[in-house]
Design brief:
The chain is mainly alpha-helical and 289 residues long. The protein has eleven helices and no strands.
């Protein structure tokens, strides 16, 4: 804390301390006078003065508390406004990252929308749904750390290139940590590439150890990727994509999240039976959606 700020804080504190101190001294004097004089008319008057001074003390303290409360609310409002601005800037950055490759344009926006709607469908609180929607929209911001040559590659990547892509979820987590309002959803961003059988990354988490938000984002991320053209394959239809997600449950994706997506897309009435062999853990774990 700078010297100027310290002086300002001390000055503000003095506005409260001075009247409180004066009131306390006066109360002490009155109390002593009552003890010496006994209870006569003059003592009654002094008692009234004592009550009045106590009232002044209460009002001064109340005023100080109210002022501090107003300043606290103002600071919180300013902090939230700053975080909203920061979030808006990050959204623009994500769009710029995706604009480097027409195959990925709009991906994060779509994932954010699907994540929010799936969370709503699963009965999550409204505030949590909004937060998860934002998390879904920002989940791939860590792709900034991936070299453009890798991001735009039209071939299957491996080795160091694959590890650099895998690291994007951790980078996303680190970039978003300053957003205190997003803190409850940060684990969902960090672990959205985990898989139910433990074959995902970065922590190899399994089943219920994976945050629910991460399981929702994983399904939304995979669905959007499958239903859009990629360099190595054409887009699937929504029906085929949901069928593939169902095939990859419960080894890869949370069945509840997959069925929530199907309901959101009005595809829940389709046959949800998994084809033979679906119980095998044969579903690939892509580096990113």
């Amino acid at each position: 804390m700078s010297a100027v700020r310290r002086l300002r804080v001390l000055g503000d504190a003095g506005d409260v301390v001075r009247p409180v101190s004066i009131s306390l001294i006066a109360i002490g004097v009155v109390a002593c006078a009552l003890a010496v004089e006994g209870w006569h008319t003059s003592s009654l008057l002094l008692g009234l003065v004592l009550i009045a001074l106590a009232g002044v003390l209460v009002l001064q303290v109340r005023r100080a508390v109210c002022q501090l409360g107003e300043e606290s609310v103002s600071l919180r409002t300013s902090a939230l406004a700053a975080e909203r601005h920061y979030s808006a800037v990050l959204r623009r950055i994500v769009r710029e990252v995706e604009s480097r490759d027409t195959y990925w344009a709009g991906h994060s926006r779509h994932v954010g929308m699907l994540t929010r709607r799936m969370a709503e469908n699963m009965g999550r609180p409204a505030e949590q749904c909004e937060l998860l929607g934002l998390a879904g929209e920002l989940h791939d911001i860590g792709m900034l750390a991936v070299p453009e040559s890798v991001l735009l590659s039209r071939r299957c990547i491996g080795g160091a290139d694959f590890r650099s892509v895998q690291n994007h979820s951790h980078v996303s987590y680190e970039l978003l940590k300053p957003l205190r309002s997003l803190a409850p959803a940060l684990p969902s961003i960090r672990y959205h590439h985990e898989r139910m059988n433990g074959s995902g990354y970065p922590g190899g988490l399994k089943g219920g150890d994976i945050p629910l938000g991460a399981r929702i984002i994983a399904v939304a991320d995979a669905y959007d990727a499958m239903t859009h053209d990629r360099p190595h394959r054409p887009a699937m239809s929504p029906t085929a994509a949901v069928a593939e997600l169902r095939r990859c449950t419960p080894s890869g994706y949370d069945p509840r999240c997959v069925e929530s997506l199907a309901e959101v897309l009005n595809l829940s009435e389709l046959d949800s039976a998994r084809p033979a062999g679906a119980e095998r853990s044969s579903c690939p774990v892509p580096a990113t959606g």
